[in-house]
User: What shape does this take?
Amino acid sequence: METVIFITTAIVAVGAALGMVLSSNAVHSALFLILNFCAVAVMYLLLRAPFMAAVQVTVYAGAIMVLFLFVIMLLGAEKADLGSEPIGWQKPVGVLLGAVLLAEGIYVAYKGIKLVDAPITAALGIGQPTTLSAVLFSKYLLPFEVISILLLVAIVGTVVLTRRTVKLKEAE
Amino acid sequence: MSEISTNAYVLVSAILFTIGVIGVMTRRNAIIMFMSVELMLNSANLALIAFSRAKASTDGQIITFFVIAVAAAEVAVGLALLVSIFRAKRTTNVDDVSTLKG
Assistant: This one.
């Protein structure tokens, strides 16, 4: 049963990723990417990480992709890169290098890592929110605080970048 | 109950990462390039959580949590940059903004 769910989810995830890269409309790309994030969230559930699955759906598929869709529709940039191809060999070379990278990835996935999986009973407890938060607020407390400063810097940066400077010059 | 091996998850992660790389290298729409970067971060998260289960350790999931937070900050700043570039140049095609002069 778990194998069937895994294969189905993997096909949906890879198909949605391909659809994201190949579709000519940026809005369709964003919707394909949301489908991909949801499929990966199902994989997190299969990996016994329910909290990360919830975070994936709410933060990634919810907040971040809504921001993407908002900007696409604000700028009207659905079809920005059609008809412009200054370097003709760019696409074939990109796909070729990607294929080389994929070959390396498959090699590493099957030959490079020799993991002895821990028994599933040991992995069951680690994905719970209580376990995660206990680690997050003790061992990883400093990185957690640094992340909050990073988010503050991001907010300030966003405001500065999108502010119109015309009014500032008038005030001077 | 049959368990899926960690290798299978890493394989899916590698495929998703490759698709993201190809997206960045072949597409010229800055927004779609951004989304491809998100896809790559996401595939790295999948590998981290797979390793976290394999080692029965919380560390992989905590790092995934941080990756998601950094991705949120990165998207906010990146999209703000795109909006201000669009205001100046009326385009989101990265080939049209190849000059450093504003």
Q: What stands out?
A: Residues 1-77 of chain A form a domain with the Four Helix Bundle (Hemerythrin (Met), subunit A) fold (CATH 1.20.120.1200). The two ends of chain A are 69 Å apart (CA to CA). Chain A touches chain B through 84 residues (CB under 8 Å).
